[in-house]
Amino acid sequence: MVKSNSNNMSAVIVNNISKKYKVEKSQVTALNTVSFEVLKGELFGIVGPDGSGKTSLFRVLTTLLLADSGNASIEGFDIVKDYKIIRKKLGYMPGRFSLYHDLTVEENLSFFATIFNTSIAENYDLIKDIYQQIEPFKNRRAGKLSGGMKQKLALCCALIHKPSVLILDEPTTGVDAVSRKEFWEMLQRLKAQGITILVSTPYMDEASMCDRVALMQNGQILAIDKPDQINLQFSKPLWAVKAASMYNLLKTFKKWEAVESCYSFGEYYHVVMKSDLNGSDVIKSYLLQQQFLDIEVHQITANIEDSFMALMNKSHD
Amino acid sequence: MINQNVIIAEGLTKIFGNFVAVDHISFEVAKGEIFGFLGANGAGKTTAMRMLCGLSTPSSGKATVAGFDLFKDTEQIKKSIGYMSQKFSLYEDLTIRENIQFYGGIYGLSKKQIQEKTTYLVEQLHLQNYQNSLVKSLPLGWKQKLAFSVAIVHDPAIVFLDEPTGGVDPVTRREFWELIYDASERGITVFVTTHYMDEAEYCNRVSIMVDGRIEALDTPKNLKKTFNSLCMDEVFLKLARKAVRGE
Known about the structure:
The structure holds 2 protein chains of 2 kinds.
Chain A: E1 10-23, E2 26-39, E3 43-47, H1 54-61, E4 69-74, E5 77-78, H2 83-89, E6 90-93, H3 105-115, H4 124-134, H5 147-159, E7 165-168, H6 177-192, E8 196-201, E9 212-217, E10 220-225, H7 227-232, E11 238-242, H8 246-255, E12 259-265, E13 268-273, H9 279-289, E14 296-300, H10 304-316
Parallel strand pairs in A: 3-8, 3-9, 6-7, 7-8
Antiparallel strand pairs in A: 1-2, 1-4, 4-5, 9-10, 11-13, 11-14, 12-13
Helix pairs in contact in A: 3-5, 4-5
Chain B: E1 5-16, E2 19-30, E3 34-39, H1 45-52, E4 60-65, E5 68-69, H2 74-80, E6 81-85, H3 96-106, H4 111-124, H5 140-151, E7 158-162, H6 170-185, E8 189-193, H7 197-200, E9 205-210, E10 213-218, H8 220-226, H9 232-240
Helix pairs in contact in B: 3-4, 3-5, 5-6
């Protein structure tokens, strides 16, 4: 791992960050020696379920929470020493809507612009695409906006001071498939303007929208790479299997000792066998023997969720 | 049973002022079916679900849930259903056992039934070693599975699940669906909303709401055929993109 400040291609450098919380009498490790770098202009995703440490990590990077150990820098500035400079350079959209409910859309935006000594007019270009979608409602109070509109307003407020690094904590959580797609298209356009974007998501399928991703679980990073590179690391043959009576099929796979793992994926089960030999034939003949009908078995390449689960199991061993 | 449909809705409508949130929806759900209820944000899913749970009186239309009339028998409906949302309603300061016992009591189970249920659920969820731990100390995925089990502690005719799997890790998400299959095998009808389109494939039938109306309703297989799509994600995008109204 490259030490802080040594690489001027990196917008964000995170070095062995750890953070523990006290809960009751026990300690919970939120972040366990997390290290990674985000290149300038990169769209970098942190993908992991709730409780994996994504928000803690972002709160450390946005200078809102002190880590127990480790260090990190943003655009070459130390997150502890230089926190005042960093706050000017960062745009942050927290997971919880944190704008002023009783100010209007326009008032919220000009409030955040004023805090950063700028004006809506000055950086209008940057937010124009997004703001135009909510401008018809500019006199509506933020608390009265729908979820999707709140999200767009929050993004505008995070961008209004023209940050060089944008940190977005689960912007697409609870958002339907159509709006999620639109949001990612919006991020692609911001990236094209040269902004470095660090975004977290619990939706595994969104990994493919990022240049690189870090998969996170239990405060640890399981893997960092381009999404398709991560999938190439899935070493064993993977079989998509379906048959009539899917729930019985699942129960059969769970009981069969030759199976290493079996997970449902849409209309198929994705199955890994303990032995790599002739997986397709072995599965077919076994299922025929068990009286299954309409059996279909074919080999597939792993997707990000397959990879994530394989890495999760590996880290438990 | 004479009537195998546990939900029958005919022209169910909810109007707020001059806004038609739910616009004449008609559908039936069979006993033991896993019924996926999809739609974009603002399509009217929550409003429809609140009506079916007896929490909101329809503006017009007809419906029965578990054989009870949605206009007259809402109290009986509430006793015949279970409900779980992403913000599940477990008591963080009670233990696993206490939560099960509490909900058993609320739903009017006898002492003996509560005892049996508690033992059964703790075993089914493999929580034997944690039954006396406070719920707040549990990982999210365990809470979610417990919340589901508690929602069906009284063996309701129907359980309504409102985005039950948001944010959980992929392994737990699948374990959760195994609980759903198990409930459905025991004859409990499962009415579920989700934003994960792969989960739509796990349903027996799926309806997709657009602008307050049900635009499509069929098995995942037939929907993919009808809309000439490879996966449910594609079906959903094709339909939901037609939406005119915002959230």
